């Protein structure tokens, strides 16, 4: 059956606005006729009036011929004919209310220009008016993926004649063939429903409430029985099996129960306290927390004094005694302390990846022989003797005679005050191990450190340079090179 014919096979009537260009009118007339419709010279009682939107003639036609007595007379743009042809069906005029187009507003949240144009055309083809302002519109179309959509919903949800819909709502209505607004659902506003019974307090509830208050605030004069936190803590105990009863009421209800019946409940609480006799400030009572740890007082003492009389502050003797560690002596463990670890095993526990053995332990014969031939001597205690009272100044503290001026000598002497021991003590553990390997096997620190950076293992580095020193020690002495005869003759 042709598109522009009704169920009885009668042709649907069309009236075309007179001031539309002739070529457009001719094309529209041809399409209507081919689809089974008929073009009338006068406005029909039931049918479609094809207009050009936005013109004064369209406004005149609507004013003259749009009446509630003719609900089957529709005003549509002349492009409606082509739209029906493309959809293969007669587009229903669903966006009509009380014989007038439903005013709609396309919100700016729909930013795509093509989408806005297509949306406006679809609304017009289905009988609606997409040119309404936000104030006069019955339907506001917006993008549901923006924040402004939720704002519009909250703003207009109390207005009975205004709806906020998604831009997809237009397509859904056209497919259904009817206007269906998004339904509202009931949201519980809170409070008890009319006629609904509330959970009443029982004698057992009051007894448990009094036990709780007696355990937390046994003496009323300390205060806090009408505060919020006491009863919030009570309801936080709901996960405890012994306190499953707290869920019968909210913490506000427990608080109000005591507040409104305080004179009567205080007597019961006093009786419970009299039986249990808890001490004031006992652990677990409300308002009492753990006492903070006392901080050790640091006293400033004059530990050293330079030539100008400046004092240096340091920790007290008590702090030094507290921070000092016991010195572990080698030997059998004391009685009553089974399995005490010797110092070597203790060092292995602290630094398991390092070989902390002293240089004189487990030394091969070749290394011992090489050490005897070394020009450097090991440090002994006599090298770092100190001056006592007016005694003789030690050899290491005497200033060397230099031909330079007095200024640089003083500066150099001042800079060299730090002992090698203090410099080595500031080294990192790994750097100290590298230094020890270099000193033990008489290689440069740079050579040892370069190999250690490659392998990353102190033991492996120590073994490598031990083997290298053994190889060098076992090499035979080289004879002086003999001069060639021809070279002596040349000279």
Automatic annotation (TrEMBL):
InterPro entries the record matches: Homeodomain-like_sf, TE2IP/Rap1, TERF2IP_Myb
Pfam families: Myb_Rap1 (PF08914)
GO CC terms, sorted: shelterin complex
Main location, first listed in the record: nucleus
Cellular location(s): Nucleus; Chromosome, Telomere
Biased composition (Basic and acidic residues): 399-414
Keyword Ligase: no
Domain of life the protein comes from: Eukaryota
Alphabetical GO biological process terms: protection from non-homologous end joining at telomere; telomere maintenance via telomere lengthening
Region annotation (Disordered) ranges: 294-318, 370-431, 471-491
Keyword ATP-binding set for record: no
Compositional bias of kind Polar residues: 415-425
Listed GO MF terms: telomeric DNA binding
Residue intervals of the TERF2-interacting telomeric protein 1 Myb domain: 201-261
Subunit structure: Homodimer.
Family: Belongs to the RAP1 family.
Stated name of the protein: DNA-binding protein RAP1
Naturally occurring in which organism (per UniProt): Hermanssonia centrifuga
């Amino acid at each position: 059956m042709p598109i522009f014919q009704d169920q009885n096979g009668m042709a649907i009537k069309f009236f075309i606005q007179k001031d539309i260009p002739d070529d457009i009118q001719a094309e529209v007339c041809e399409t209507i006729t081919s689809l089974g419709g008929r073009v009338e010279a006068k406005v029909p009682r039931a049918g479609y009036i094809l207009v050009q939107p936005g013109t004064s003639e369209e406004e005149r036609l609507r004013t003259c011929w749009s009446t509630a007595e003719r609900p089957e007379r529709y005003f549509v743009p002349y492009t409606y004919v082509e739209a029906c042809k493309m959809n293969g069906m007669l587009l229903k005029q669903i966006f009509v209310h009380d014989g007038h187009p439903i005013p709609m507003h396309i919100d700016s949240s729909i930013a795509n220009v093509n989408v806005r144009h297509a949306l406006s055309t679809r609304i017009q083809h289905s009988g609606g008016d997409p040119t309404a302002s936000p104030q006069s519109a019955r339907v506001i179309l917006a993008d549901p993926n923006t924040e402004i959509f939720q704002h519009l919903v909250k703003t207009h949800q109390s207005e009975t004649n205004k709806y906020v819909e998604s831009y997809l709502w237009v397509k859904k209505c056209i497919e259904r063939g009817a206007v269906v607004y998004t339904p509202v659902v009931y949201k519980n506003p809170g409070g008890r429903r009319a006629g609904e019974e509330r959970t009443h307090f029982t004698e057992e509830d009051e007894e448990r409430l009094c036990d709780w208050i007696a355990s937390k605030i046994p003496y009323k004069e300390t205060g806090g029985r009408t505060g919020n936190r006491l009863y919030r803590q009570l309801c936080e105990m709901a996960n405890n099996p012994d306190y499953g009863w707290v869920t019968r009421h909210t913490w506000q209800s427990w608080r109000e129960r005591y507040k409104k019946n305080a004179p009567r409940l205080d007597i019961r609480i006093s009786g419970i306290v009299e039986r249990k006799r808890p001490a004031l400030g006992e652990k677990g009572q409300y308002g009492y927390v753990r006492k903070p740890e006392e901080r050790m007082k640091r006293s400033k003492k004059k530990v050293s004094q330079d030539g100008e009389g400046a004092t240096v502050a340091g920790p007290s003797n008590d702090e030094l005694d507290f921070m000092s560690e016991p010195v572990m002596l080698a030997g059998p463990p004391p009685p009553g302390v089974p399995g005490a670890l010797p110092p070597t095993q203790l060092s292995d526990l602290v630094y398991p990846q390092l070989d902390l053995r002293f240089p004189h332990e487990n030394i091969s014969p070749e290394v011992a022989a090489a050490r005897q031939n070394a020009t450097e001597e090991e440090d002994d205690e006599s090298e770092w003797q100190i001056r006592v009272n007016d005694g003789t100044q030690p050899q290491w503290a005497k200033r060397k005679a230099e031909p330079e001026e007095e200024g640089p000598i003083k500066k150099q002497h001042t800079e060299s005050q730090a002992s090698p021991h203090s410099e080595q003590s500031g080294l990192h553990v790994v750097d100290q191990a590298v230094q020890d390997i270099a000193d033990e096997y008489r290689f440069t620190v740079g050579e040892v450190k370069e190999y250690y950076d490659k392998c990353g293992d102190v033991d492996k580095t120590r073994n490598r340079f031990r083997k290298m020193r053994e190889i060098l020690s076992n090499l035979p002495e080289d004879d002086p090179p003999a001069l060639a005869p021809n070279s002596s003759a040349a000279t």
